[in-house]
Amino acid sequence: MPLLSLLVGGALVAGWMDAVVGGGGLVLLPLLLIAFPNAVPAAALGTNKLTAFWGTATAAVLYLRRVEVNRRIVAISVPLAGLCAVGGALAASAVSSDMMRPFVIAAMLAVGAFVALRPQFGATRESFAPVSRTRFIVAVCTLAVIGFYDGVFGPGTGLFLIITLTALLHQSFLQSAAMAKVANTATNVGALAVFASQGHVMWLLGAILAVANIAGSVVGSRLVLGSGTKIVRYALLVIVVVMAAKLSYDQFT
């Protein structure tokens, strides 16, 4: 029971983080690896994806009820991101996480510096600016690449989605967060399908953790929807620092 309580608490916090800006996997995944030291790592990855799916799906529904998004980009890029996540999950065994971490850390620090030095970035009003065909194509392709990354490695997927969508579509953090939840739900489904087909999902545990993840997601979503873009900006900067520190620790220990 103490171990299960720890996992449930981790799922709750992870759901809150994923609903606000992303990064919940940094909380729950290490706990799963610690709780089941004799299990193959893929079992922890698969169970984490099952849990995260329900939280991100809940957040996506809550966001879409209140935030207007570019449905044309969602309709094209979300299924594509899900399919790319399938490819990423299939390729995960051939990609070394030790090789990827330095690039991800550098990307996160660059994102954090950019957001910190551009106070107006992501603070636009909730309206749509015209999107050129070039930007539209680049946005779709970038979401596909992030989907593949989520299947291969994963940390920072939500953060990278929000930054990409904000920069390319000239929209607010809140609009980008709403679209990111939809895209992240699709990538979770794609990766989960691969892990499930390989028998790497602890279904009963995942179902229990999913309930806590949903609860955390509801709390996080309501916080963001009530506070607007400012809370997303602050949370993004905090998550950048925390995730960069955690990945750096994993890299050098």
From TrEMBL:
<feature type="transmembrane region" description="Helical">
    <location>
        <begin position="231"/>
        <end position="249"/>
    </location>
</feature>
<keyword id="KW-0813">Transport</keyword>
<feature type="transmembrane region" description="Helical">
    <location>
        <begin position="73"/>
        <end position="93"/>
    </location>
</feature>
<feature type="transmembrane region" description="Helical">
    <location>
        <begin position="137"/>
        <end position="169"/>
    </location>
</feature>
<keyword id="KW-1133">Transmembrane helix</keyword>
<keyword id="KW-0472">Membrane</keyword>
<dbReference type="Pfam" id="PF01925">
    <property type="entry name" value="TauE"/>
</dbReference>
<comment type="similarity">
    <text>Belongs to the 4-toluene sulfonate uptake permease (TSUP) (TC 2.A.102) family.</text>
</comment>
<feature type="transmembrane region" description="Helical">
    <location>
        <begin position="99"/>
        <end position="117"/>
    </location>
</feature>
<dbReference type="InterPro" id="IPR052017">
    <property type="entry name" value="TSUP"/>
</dbReference>
<protein>
    <recommendedName>
        <fullName>Probable membrane transporter protein</fullName>
    </recommendedName>
</protein>
<dbReference type="InterPro" id="IPR002781">
    <property type="entry name" value="TM_pro_TauE-like"/>
</dbReference>
<keyword id="KW-0812">Transmembrane</keyword>
<keyword id="KW-1003">Cell membrane</keyword>
